[in-house]
Amino acid sequence: MDTEPKFIKPTPRIQDEELDDKIHETRKILEELCVTESVELTTSQEDIYGLMYSLEFPMNNGTKVTLGITMYDYQLTDADLVIDTMTTLPDSETGEGYGTKVIEKIKSWAKEHNINSMCATQVSNVKAKNFLIKNGFVEESGNNKLGNFIFKL
Predict the structure, then answer these.
(1) How far apart (Å, rounded) are the C-alpha atoms in residues 63 and 103?
(2) Which residue, of 84, 122, 125, 139, is most buried by count of CB atoms within 10 Å of its CB?
(3) Residue 113 host element (H or E)
(4) What is the DSSP-derived secondary structure letter of residue 122?
(5) Cα distances (Å, whole numbers) of residue 41 to 35, 53, 133, 151, 153
(6) For the stretch 10-38, what's the b/e string if a residue is b when 16 or more beta carbons lie within 10 angstroms of its beta carbon?
(7) Residues 56/64, Cβ–Cβ less than 8 Å
(8) What are the Cα distances from residue 150, in Å, to 32, 47, 142?
(9) For residue 77, which phi and psi values (nearest 5 degrees)?
């Protein structure tokens, strides 16, 4: 990584006081991954199980890889970390290895924090599928209507 990643939109979705410890633990381990001045956690009744974050990984040349993740949301997958979105901007930098750097950083960080599995969800185009396979993800077997790709740590 050329520069440290940072939070751009922390948007946790929790409405259950029993999960306060998990919220604070998640914030702590994500702060270790991301440089940030302050991460403010807010609650909503939208989803009582998951914590959604948008992480921005800036590169020295101005390229930014943005990753949307959900932590501990077991409604649609058994994965501890779900990759909802991944974008490299500007588009002209797609395919230059920045996404792979980010995935490697996330895999390393996840392993350090006992996150057992990751899932990229709603993968629909061939380029994205090939990217995930190249980075060690396996297409979920069976009735995979969500287009999930799994990585076991």
Answers:
(1) 15
(2) 84
(3) none
(4) S
(5) 16, 10, 34, 28, 27
(6) bebbbeeeebeeebeebbebbeebbebee
(7) yes
(8) 24, 22, 13
(9) -155, 160
Sign of torsion over alpha carbons 128, 4, 107, 72: negative
* 73 vs 61, more confident: 61
Per-residue model confidence as pLDDT tens digits over 15-24: 445 455 665 6
Q: Which residue has the tokens 């409604």?
A: 75
pLDDT in tens, 106-125: 898 888 888 889 999 999 89
Cα separation, 55 vs 5, whole angstroms? 7
- pLDDT, position 60: 82
If you compute the radius of gyration of the chain from its CA atoms, what whole number of angstroms results? 15
pLDDT score of 73: 67
Residue type (1 letter), 145: K
Tokens coding 101: 């750097």
Among candidate residues 75, 70, 60, the one with its CA nearest the CA of residue 30? 70
The token pair at 62 is 């101005």
